[in-house]
Design brief:
The chain is about 70% helix and about 0% strand. With about 160 residues, the protein is mainly α. The protein is elongated, with a radius of gyration of 19 Å.
Length: about 160
Protein backbone atom coordinates (compact mmCIF):
# COMPACT_ATOMS: atom_id res chain seq x y z
CA UNK A 1 0.00 0.00 0.00
CA UNK A 2 1.55 3.23 -1.13
CA UNK A 3 1.54 6.28 1.13
CA UNK A 4 0.28 9.64 -0.04
CA UNK A 5 2.92 12.04 -1.29
CA UNK A 6 2.67 14.22 1.81
CA UNK A 7 2.89 11.26 4.16
CA UNK A 8 5.93 9.92 2.28
CA UNK A 9 7.62 13.31 2.61
CA UNK A 10 7.01 13.36 6.36
CA UNK A 11 8.46 9.85 6.70
CA UNK A 12 11.49 10.56 4.50
CA UNK A 13 12.39 14.01 5.87
CA UNK A 14 11.89 13.18 9.52
CA UNK A 15 13.77 9.91 9.08
CA UNK A 16 16.61 11.73 7.34
CA UNK A 17 16.75 14.35 10.11
CA UNK A 18 16.71 11.63 12.78
CA UNK A 19 19.49 9.72 11.03
CA UNK A 20 21.57 12.88 10.40
CA UNK A 21 21.38 14.10 13.99
CA UNK A 22 22.28 10.65 15.32
CA UNK A 23 25.19 10.32 12.89
CA UNK A 24 26.42 13.82 13.73
CA UNK A 25 26.26 12.99 17.42
CA UNK A 26 28.46 9.96 16.71
CA UNK A 27 30.97 12.06 14.78
CA UNK A 28 31.20 14.68 17.52
CA UNK A 29 31.26 12.03 20.25
CA UNK A 30 34.00 9.83 18.83
CA UNK A 31 35.94 11.78 16.22
CA UNK A 32 35.89 15.46 17.21
CA UNK A 33 36.87 15.15 20.85
CA UNK A 34 38.88 18.02 22.25
CA UNK A 35 41.93 17.27 24.35
CA UNK A 36 41.79 19.46 27.40
CA UNK A 37 43.91 19.97 30.47
CA UNK A 38 41.87 17.41 32.44
CA UNK A 39 41.30 14.76 29.77
CA UNK A 40 38.80 14.65 26.94
CA UNK A 41 35.71 16.69 27.75
CA UNK A 42 32.71 16.26 25.45
CA UNK A 43 32.57 18.48 22.40
CA UNK A 44 30.18 21.42 23.02
CA UNK A 45 28.04 20.47 19.99
CA UNK A 46 27.60 16.87 21.17
CA UNK A 47 24.85 17.86 23.60
CA UNK A 48 22.99 19.85 20.93
CA UNK A 49 23.05 17.02 18.39
CA UNK A 50 21.67 14.72 21.07
CA UNK A 51 18.88 17.18 21.91
CA UNK A 52 17.95 17.54 18.25
CA UNK A 53 18.08 13.76 17.85
CA UNK A 54 15.63 13.38 20.74
CA UNK A 55 13.34 15.99 19.21
CA UNK A 56 13.30 14.20 15.85
CA UNK A 57 12.80 10.88 17.65
CA UNK A 58 9.56 12.23 19.14
CA UNK A 59 8.48 13.39 15.67
CA UNK A 60 9.30 9.95 14.25
CA UNK A 61 7.24 8.30 17.00
CA UNK A 62 4.25 10.39 15.91
CA UNK A 63 4.82 9.54 12.25
CA UNK A 64 5.33 5.84 12.98
CA UNK A 65 2.10 5.91 14.95
CA UNK A 66 0.32 7.46 11.98
CA UNK A 67 1.48 4.53 9.82
CA UNK A 68 0.11 1.81 12.10
CA UNK A 69 -3.66 2.10 11.58
CA UNK A 70 -3.56 2.21 7.80
CA UNK A 71 -0.25 1.43 6.12
CA UNK A 72 0.94 -1.33 8.46
CA UNK A 73 -2.50 -2.83 9.16
CA UNK A 74 -3.59 -2.86 5.51
CA UNK A 75 -0.22 -4.21 4.34
CA UNK A 76 -0.44 -6.97 6.93
CA UNK A 77 -3.99 -7.94 5.92
CA UNK A 78 -3.10 -7.85 2.23
CA UNK A 79 0.02 -9.94 2.99
CA UNK A 80 2.19 -7.52 1.00
CA UNK A 81 5.87 -6.82 1.64
CA UNK A 82 5.63 -8.69 4.94
CA UNK A 83 9.29 -9.60 5.40
CA UNK A 84 10.69 -6.12 4.78
CA UNK A 85 7.81 -4.46 6.63
CA UNK A 86 8.24 -6.73 9.63
CA UNK A 87 11.96 -5.99 9.73
CA UNK A 88 11.25 -2.24 9.61
CA UNK A 89 8.77 -2.55 12.49
CA UNK A 90 11.22 -4.71 14.49
CA UNK A 91 13.98 -2.12 13.99
CA UNK A 92 11.66 0.68 15.08
CA UNK A 93 10.72 -1.26 18.21
CA UNK A 94 14.39 -1.95 19.02
CA UNK A 95 15.34 1.69 18.48
CA UNK A 96 12.44 2.91 20.63
CA UNK A 97 13.27 0.42 23.39
CA UNK A 98 16.99 1.16 23.34
CA UNK A 99 16.36 4.93 23.21
CA UNK A 100 14.08 4.61 26.23
CA UNK A 101 16.70 2.46 27.98
CA UNK A 102 19.41 5.04 27.25
CA UNK A 103 17.34 7.72 28.88
CA UNK A 104 16.54 5.68 31.99
CA UNK A 105 19.48 3.26 32.30
CA UNK A 106 22.31 3.39 34.79
CA UNK A 107 25.84 4.44 33.87
CA UNK A 108 27.13 0.86 33.84
CA UNK A 109 24.80 -0.40 31.09
CA UNK A 110 24.66 2.81 29.03
CA UNK A 111 27.74 2.11 26.80
CA UNK A 112 26.37 -1.28 25.70
CA UNK A 113 22.87 0.06 25.07
CA UNK A 114 24.31 3.07 23.24
CA UNK A 115 26.40 0.88 20.92
CA UNK A 116 23.38 -1.31 20.20
CA UNK A 117 21.24 1.76 19.50
CA UNK A 118 23.61 3.42 17.08
CA UNK A 119 24.53 0.20 15.26
CA UNK A 120 20.83 -0.50 14.62
CA UNK A 121 20.22 3.18 13.81
CA UNK A 122 23.00 3.27 11.21
CA UNK A 123 21.45 0.27 9.46
CA UNK A 124 17.87 1.52 9.62
CA UNK A 125 17.96 3.59 6.39
CA UNK A 126 19.18 0.57 4.42
CA UNK A 127 16.26 -1.51 5.70
CA UNK A 128 13.76 1.28 5.00
CA UNK A 129 15.06 1.66 1.43
CA UNK A 130 14.82 -2.13 0.99
CA UNK A 131 11.20 -2.01 2.19
CA UNK A 132 10.37 0.87 -0.17
CA UNK A 133 11.99 -0.74 -3.21
CA UNK A 134 10.34 -4.11 -2.57
CA UNK A 135 7.00 -2.39 -2.14
CA UNK A 136 7.30 -0.41 -5.35
CA UNK A 137 8.71 -3.20 -7.49
CA UNK A 138 6.79 -6.24 -6.40
CA UNK A 139 3.34 -4.80 -5.77
CA UNK A 140 2.02 -2.93 -8.74
CA UNK A 141 -1.53 -3.33 -7.40
CA UNK A 142 -0.64 -1.55 -4.16
CA UNK A 143 -1.95 1.78 -5.47
CA UNK A 144 -5.53 0.50 -5.56
CA UNK A 145 -7.95 2.09 -3.12
CA UNK A 146 -8.38 0.08 0.05
CA UNK A 147 -11.70 0.07 1.92
CA UNK A 148 -11.80 0.37 5.69
CA UNK A 149 -11.95 -3.43 6.01
CA UNK A 150 -8.27 -3.59 5.05
CA UNK A 151 -8.89 -5.93 2.10
CA UNK A 152 -8.28 -5.09 -1.56
CA UNK A 153 -11.30 -4.21 -3.68
CA UNK A 154 -10.27 -6.41 -6.60
CA UNK A 155 -11.05 -10.07 -6.82
CA UNK A 156 -7.54 -11.01 -7.94
CA UNK A 157 -6.15 -14.13 -6.26
CA UNK A 158 -3.69 -13.43 -3.45
CA UNK A 159 -0.11 -14.47 -4.11
CA UNK A 160 1.63 -16.74 -1.62
CA UNK A 161 3.84 -14.94 0.92
CA UNK A 162 6.69 -17.36 0.27
CA UNK A 163 6.73 -16.67 -3.45
CA UNK A 164 7.34 -12.96 -2.78
CA UNK A 165 10.34 -13.41 -0.48
Amino acid sequence: MRLSRGHRHWVYWSGAALFATGALWLVYRFFLREHGEFGEPPHPMEEWWLRLHGTFAVLMLIIAGSLLPIHVRVGWHQRKNLLAGSVVVAILVLLIASGFALYYSDERSRPTISALHWIIGLGAPVVLIWHILRGRGAHSTSDQPVPSTGKPETSQPQQSTLSRM
